[in-house]
């Protein structure tokens, strides 16, 4: 179990772009402000279902969702975990799957 640490940087989702239209398998990427290491977890909307976990290397992270998302609107959030502590969740990123 991890504990929240407000001093940890909140991951920034760069892709998919806000309100973008994506195709399945959705590619997700972003950065961590302090260029540190750790793991980023991607969550589906308010359900908090984990869609993806990826390693952060030199402040950058990326991955491709293994599951297809249904067509339509989606929202994801990211959270950094480092040494048993986690950041706040990022703002939700809205995008659409066609």
CATH architect. name: Sandwich
Q: CATH top level? A: Mainly Beta
Computed Rg: 13 Å
CATH topology assignment? Immunoglobulin-like
Structural class: mainly beta
User: Regions with pLDDT < 50 over 5+ consecutive residues?
Assistant: none
Oligomeric category: single chain
Sheet of most strands = 7 strands, mixed
Approximately how much helix is present in the residues? under 10%
Question: Could you give the distance between the termini?
Answer: 36 Å
Short description:
Helix content is 0%, strand content 53%. It has 98 residues and is an all-beta fold.
Topology of this structure?
Blueprint: E1 3-4, E2 12-15, E3 20-22, E4 27-31, E5 38-44, E6 49-56, E7 60-64, E8 72-82, E9 85-86, E10 93-97
Parallel strand pairs: 1-9, 3-10
Antiparallel strand pairs: 2-4, 4-7, 5-6, 5-8, 8-9, 8-10
